[in-house]
C-alpha cells in the first residue's frame, strides 16, 4: 500500500481497447484518440497523448465487442468530467485521465454502419 486510501464506487475491469474522446461545451469538435486502462460502471480510466484539465467535461465513445463474435456488441457513448490526471512519463509520455461518467447511452453495434469503426481502430503514427 502507498498510504492512499482508495474510495472506489464501483468495481473496475481491466479492459484495454481504443476509444475516442473530445472536450464538449467549449466549442471543440475534434475527436482525440486514447486507449482504456480500466472501466467501471461509474468511470473510465484511459491513456492519451493530449492532456486536459481536471474538471473538464468530455464525451467518450468506444466499442464493447462480444468475445464470441467481432460482429456483435455495443457502442458506448458517455459524457463525464475529468476527476484525475496523471503524467508519470511512462507509456511513451502519455497522460492518464480518469473520467467520472455522468450520462451514457448504449447502441447496438452494426458492422459497416458504426460511427466508431474507423476513428477508434485507427492507430496514429508516432512523430
Structure commentary:
The protein has one domain (18-111): Thrombin, subunit H (Beta Barrel). β2 and β3 (43-48) form a beta hairpin. The longest helix is centred in the C-terminal third of the chain and has 5 residues, at 117-121. The radius of gyration is 15 Å and the shape is globular. With 127 residues, the protein is mainly beta. Helices cover 7% and strands 45% of the residues. The chain has two helices and six strands. It has helices spanning 90-93, 117-121, and strands spanning 18-23, 32-39, 43-48, 57-65, 73-86, 95-108. The chain has a six-stranded antiparallel beta barrel.
Q: In short, what is this structure?
A:
By secondary structure, the protein is mainly beta. Helix content is 7%, strand content 45%. Strands 1-2-3-6-5-4 form a 6-stranded antiparallel beta barrel.
Can you tell me the residue ranges where pLDDT is under 50 for at least 5 consecutive residues?
1-5, 118-127
| Sheet with the most strands, sense and barrel status | 6 strands, antiparallel, barrel
Q: How many domains comprise the coordinates? A: 1
The topology string of helices and strands comes to: EEEEEHEH
Look at the structure and give the mean pLDDT: 80
Tally of strands: 6
Per CATH, which architecture?
A: Beta Barrel
CATH topology: Thrombin, subunit H
- Name the strands of the widest sheet in spatial order: 1-2-3-6-5-4
Compute the gyration radius: what is it? 15 Å
- Helix count equals 2
Roughly what fraction of the amino acids lie in strands?
Answer: 35-45%
CATH classification class: Mainly Beta
> From the helix content, strand content and strand pairing, which structural class follows?
mainly beta
What would you call the shape?
Answer: globular
CATH superfamily: predicted glycosyltransferase like domains
Q: Helix amount, in percent? A: under 10%
**Quaternary organization:** single chain
**End-to-end distance, in Å?**
37 Å
Amino acid at each position: 500500500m502507498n498510504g492512499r486510501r482508495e474510495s472506489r464506487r464501483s468495481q473496475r475491469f481491466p479492459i484495454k481497447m481504443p476509444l475516442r474522446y473530445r472536450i464538449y461545451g467549449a466549442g471543440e469538435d475534434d475527436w482525440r484518440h486514447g486507449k482504456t486502462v480500466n472501466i467501471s460502471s461509474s468511470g473510465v480510466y484511459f491513456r492519451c497523448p493530449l492532456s486536459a484539465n481536471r474538471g473538464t467535461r468530455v464525451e467518450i465513445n468506444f466499442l464493447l465487442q462480444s468475445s464470441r463474435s467481432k460482429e456483435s456488441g455495443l457502442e458506448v457513448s458517455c459524457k463525464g468530467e475529468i476527476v484525475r490526471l496523471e503524467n508519470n512519463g511512462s507509456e511513451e509520455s502519455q497522460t492518464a485521465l480518469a473520467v467520472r461518467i455522468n450520462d451514457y447511452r448504449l447502441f447496438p453495434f452494426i458492422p459497416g454502419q458504426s460511427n466508431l469503426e474507423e476513428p477508434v481502430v485507427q492507430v496514429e503514427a508516432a512523430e
